[in-house]
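Give me C-alpha cells for this 138-residue protein.
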Amino acid sequence: MNKLFYIALIFIISGCSLVTDEYQSNQRKVIDYLLGDVPIPENAEVIQTPTSIQGTGQNVSGRIVLTSQDSPAENLIFYDTQAPIAGWILVSSKAGEEVILVYEKGNRVISISLVPRNTFAGFFKGDVGSIIDISLKN
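Here you go.
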C-alpha cells in the first residue's frame, strides 16, 4: 500500500510540473508576441495571477509579474543593458531595497519594479531572488 501511495504521489507531482512548464511556455509565447520589445530575463517565470495583458499591436497595456532567481541588483544590470538595445529610454529610476525603473519608447511607457524575494536555495547561498513587476501603458 505504501508503494502505491508513493507512486501516485510521484505522478501527481510530475503532472503539476508538466502543467506549470506548459503554462510558462504558452505565456512566454503570448508575451513575446504582444510585447516582443520588452526585455524579459530568460530565467524569469511568469506568475499567473496578477499577470494580465490587454490589447494588440501598439495598443497593448497590462501587467506582467515574474519571479527570478537573480537578485534585484542583477536584474537592474540586465535592464540597464537590454532595455536600450530594445529601443527603450530610461526616464526615471529609484534604487534602494526596491528598484523602480521607468522607460519610454515612442508613446509607450513601462514601469519596472524589482523587489527582493527570499528563496529556499538563497537561504543556503546567502542571496535572494527577485519579483519583477512590469506595467505597460500607452
